[in-house]
Every structure is written in C-alpha cells, then in structure tokens.
Amino acid sequence: MRLHTKLMLGILVLIILIGFVFELTFTNIIESNLKHEIGTKALSVAETISSMPTIQHAFQEEDPAAIIQPIAEKIRKQVDAEFIVVGNLNEIRYSHPNPKRIGQKMVGGDNGGAFKGDAVISESTGTLGPSLRGKAPIFGNDGKVIGVVSVGYLQTDIEKEVSRVKQKIFIVTFVVLVGGLVSALLISFNIKRAMFGLEPKEIAWMYQEKHAILESIHEAIIAIDTNGRMTVVNDTAHKILQVPNEILLRGKRIDDFIENTQLLEVVRTGQAEYDREFMILDEVYLANRIPIFNDKKEVIGAVVSFRNKSELTNLLKELSHIKSYAEGLRAQTHEYSNRLYTLLGLIQLGSYKEAIELISKEVDFAQGFIEFLMKEIPDPVIAGFILGKVSLASELKIDFTVDRESSFRDIPEDISRDSIITIIGNIVNNAFEAVRENEKDEKVVSLFLTDLGKELIIEVEDNGKGIETTAEEIFKAGYSTKNHQTNAGIGLSLVKKSIDALKGSITFSSTPGERTIFTIAIPKRRGDVA
Questions:
Q1: What is the DSSP letter of 99?
Q2: Chain-wide mean pLDDT for the chain?
Q3: DSSP H helices in 291-351
Q4: Does residue 304 sit in the same domain as residue 366?
Q5: Which is more confidently placed, 298 or 485?
Q6: End-of-domain residue from the set 111, 129, 161
Q7: What are the start-end ranges of the H helices in 217-308?
Q8: Exposed end of the chain (fewer CB within 10 Å): N or C?
Q9: What is the CATH number of the domain that holds 274?
C-alpha cells in the first residue's frame, strides 16, 4: 500500500474514532446534565409547594385533597411535570394527575429521606412508569414532618429529549466526518506532490545515495537556504573549515565560518558564478556558485563547490609533465623514422658500408648516452624526461647536450620529482624557444646537473637572443616575450613557485644576442638555505 493511501486511511480512521468518542462522550454529558437539570427543577418545584402555607394548613382539614389537588394540578401544568403528588406520613395521596388514585397509597418506596426532613432527588418506578423525582418534606407548625411533595418527570420524556439531542450530534459528527475525509484526501495529495510521488523507502535510499555521492566528491560542497543558513555540508568542507564532523553545521549561518562567499548574492540575483577565487584561513580556493530553483523557478537557496587552488596547480603540472613525455616520445618516434628511411635508402642503393656505419654510430651514441643517464641520473622519471627532451631537440634541429660531468644521484626522497621536472622542463623549453627565434645557424642548448655538496645545482645555457629585463619581471605570471603564443608567460612563474616551495633560489645572466644561463640551487635538507 502506498504512503498517500496509508495516510488517507489513517486520517479517516482517526477522524471516525474521534467522531465516535465525541458523540458518545457528548451524549453522556448531555444526558447527565439533562437529568441533573430536570431533577433540580423537580426538587425546586417540590420545595416551593411544600413551603406554601395553604398546603400546610390543608393537612388540618377533614378533606385535604379538596384543597391540595387543584393547586397541585395547576402548578403541574405550568411546570410541565408528569405528576405532582402530595401525601401524608402514611403515604396516602392528596393529589394525583389521575383523580381516581387520590386516597391510594404512594408507589415507589423512596419517601424515606423526605420523612426524615431532607429534600432529595430520586429515580423510581411509580404508577405512571419510571420517573425522575424531586421530593420535599412538608413541616407542621411544630416543625415536625407531616407530609411529602413528590414532583416527577417520566424517564421516557427524558430519553426522547436525549434522542433529539443525539440526532443533532449525529448530524454534526457526520459533517465532521465528511470534512475529515475531504481533508484527508487533500493532505495525502499534497504530501504525495511534495514528495514527488516517492515512497519513504525510496526517499531514505535517495538520502543515503546523496550522502555517499557528497562524501565521494573530493571538492567541498556547501548548500544554503535563502537566509544564508547551511543545509548541506560534506566531510571535505568540514576538513577545510577545520570543524570536526561531530559538530553539526546544518542550520548555522555560513558567514560565521567563511567570509565573502558571495552565496547570498547568488541567491539574490539567481546568476551562477564559476571559477571565482576567495580565501579561507589564508588559503586560496576556486569556487563554483550555483542557485537552487524550485518547480516555480524561484530561488530557494544556493550551492557552492570549492577546491584548493594549489591542488589544481599541481594537477596542471602533472598534465604538463605528461604532455612533455608525449612530445618526447613523438619526437623520438619521428627521429627514428627518419633514420630508418635513411637506412632503407642506403640499403636500396647498395651502400651497405655506409648503412653499417650509420647503424653503428646510432647504436654507439644511444647506448653510450643511455648508459650515462642510467649511471649518473638513476632516477627513471628524471632520466626518461631528459631523454625525451633530447629526442625533441633532435626533431627541432637543436643541438641539445647533457654535460657528461653531470651527476644527479644524491636526490633526497623528500624532494618532489614533479617539482624537479617542472623546473628542468620549463627552463629547457624556454631555452628551445629562445634558440629557435635567433638567426644563428647553430642552435645550442646545454644542461648541467650536479649533486655535489649540500645543494642540487641545475644549469641551463642557450645561445639565444638573451633577456633584456629584470628577474622580478620575468618571474611574474603572464610575462612573456612570445606574445604570439597562447599560454605564454606561465612557465617561469611555475618554476619560481616550485623553487620557492623547495626553499631554493634561481639566478640568470644574459648577454643580449649571445647567450643566457639560468642557474638553480636547491638545498638537499630543508633546514639549509640556498
């Protein structure tokens, strides 16, 4: 059975139960109040009659009934009582609605209290049937009880009055039930629409699924309502805000934890913002801010996802390294393809001697250079990267050499290889660009590496056109002499950041039109300063 059906039936059963209890309780209250009211009325009439001097004096006459019966009948009709009976101490009637029963003994056996001098209300069965009676004693001149007045209303009349009230209560209860049924239908329909027709199990599963998705995302996620109070905060956001997961952030204002999030501005304008920088605890983050709309296209909140900018920078570095590897492999493949074509041509021309010499020369060079790299630069990542640059230089017709006096064996484990590759790769790439732009026939770039002493030394020299600006200028992000290229002006700024992270230093010397030398020094131990 679906949820809205259960809700409708549950509300309907509840209303029926409430209506039944209401009718039963109200009927009992009405019946009890009606009996009390009629009994009090009967007793009041009885006391009034018993205190009448005419009634008291009539007991001294030879025929009391002749005086009492007319008075009793007149009053009975005025108060709409079923009977008014006046009797003496022997319970002999002096009045009765049926004159034939005057002189007969009173029926019911409930005069004891009145004969003791008390006014009482009782229920008993008389000659006219079950009735509710008010009985009052009649006192003589000496203060003694000389008789009794009994005023009664039949139970059947009371029951008729209760039945009439019950009918009204039933009509009211029926109207309430119909209204309740309509309300149950409306409530169940609205709940179904608000829950998009989903069942509680489906909602619980979706909540667990959403929670798992939020926690699997590496980025921090925070959602707010229109008042700026947080509604969703994932674990990554807790870590960035340095707030333990045990502390509930839901319902708290986001401005109390993050300044200048601009989320409330997104709520106000309904415009999304992407890749905007802002600060959290002195760290720079990149944020995407998106408004949340309801089915009426009204903004009901906003969500922000943000990630540390340095992580994205590291990712860009890794992609740059992969791109460099790919370019190196492509260059090496192209270079060897050219040499294979040359070798094929020599064989087809019958120049076997020249072919053998070419093969021997290539084998000797490759084997010797690879052996040198394996011995002096045992780190496979750095060695492979340099080998790729050698192949790229060969394709670009650049004479790129690695000084055979180089040695890069003693690299501490805590120094990032990615940072080393970023430094070497960007400096060498800039040297390649510099020599390609000069007009010299000989385009030379050399690389020297050494790990002797307390520092790692990297030196790159080229015979390009040189640099005619200051160190402060060239290391700024965006500065470049290659205005015709996209993404220019990034390499040296990345180099500077990587060197600063390693507590190193970079210097350069340049002779315009002749050469440029970049020298990088990186301390092997973090406590040392280059």
A1: G
A2: 79
A3: 309-348
A4: no
A5: 298
A6: 161
A7: 235-241, 263-269
A8: N
A9: 3.30.450.20
